[in-house]
Amino acid sequence: SPSQPGRVVTLLEDCGACTWGVAYEVRGEQIAASLQYLNMREAVLGGYDTKLVKFHPQEKDAEEPILALVYIATPQNPSYLGPASEEDIAAQIIVSSGCAGHNIEYLLRLADFMRYFCPQAEDQHLFSIEEALISILPCLYYTEESLEET
């Protein structure tokens, strides 16, 4: 079946905003290889700008923030779908999959990560999309089962 890449979390520039996530440290030969891969995937093909931002690790022994490279979507990003209702986003996610897997798994894993590792973030938008998706899934399953019976 043809690939239809789904929705992914996209950082949009907002000087006063805070984003929760994971930072990866690369060293030595990993640096050039990682930057080459990310620059091609995110900047050249994906329509993202790169920025250095302060990253505050959650560990209690972290003395001060470290600089981290982030990729921020531009309005010119060819894959950017723009704003939509939680229900519309959930409907897009249900029918989307790509080389990395199904978009449903991406959403559910992201929601779990945020719930367990960043409970203070309270990302209502994300959890509303998850809720909308979960409410649609039984309808989709029932429809497919009904089609097989006829």
- Widest sheet: strand ordering: 1-2
- The poorly predicted ranges are none
Please tell me the total number of domains.
1
Structural class designation: alpha+beta
Rg over alpha carbons: 18 Å
Task: Name the helix and strand elements from N-terminus to C-terminus, one letter apiece.
Answer: HEEHEEHH
Overall residue-averaged pLDDT value: 81
Number of strand segments: 4
The biggest beta sheet reads: 2 strands, antiparallel
The shape, in one word, is globular
Note the beta-strand portion. 5-15%
Helix content: 40-55%
Number of helices: 4
What distance lies between the first and last C-alpha atoms, to the nearest angstrom? 23 Å
Structure notes:
- The protein is α+β, with helices and mostly antiparallel strands and 150 residues long.
- The protein has one domain (30-148).
- Helix content is 44%, strand content 13%.
- The strands form 2 sheets. A two-stranded antiparallel ribbon has the order 1-2. A two-stranded antiparallel ribbon has the order 3-4.
- A hairpin with a 2-residue loop joins β3 and β4.
- It is globular.
- The two termini are 23 Å apart.
- The model has no long low-confidence stretch (mean pLDDT 81).
- Belongs to the gamma-glutamylcyclotransferase family. ChaC subfamily.
- Keywords: Lyase, Transferase.
- It holds the Pfam family ChaC.
Write out key terms for the chains shown.
single chain, 150 residues, alpha+beta, two-stranded antiparallel ribbon, 4 strands, 13% strand
Secondary structure elements and pairings:
Layout: H1 29-44, E1 48-55, E2 66-73, H2 86-94, E3 97-98, E4 101-102, H3 103-117, H4 124-149
Antiparallel strand pairs: 1-2, 3-4
Helix pairs in contact: 2-4, 3-4
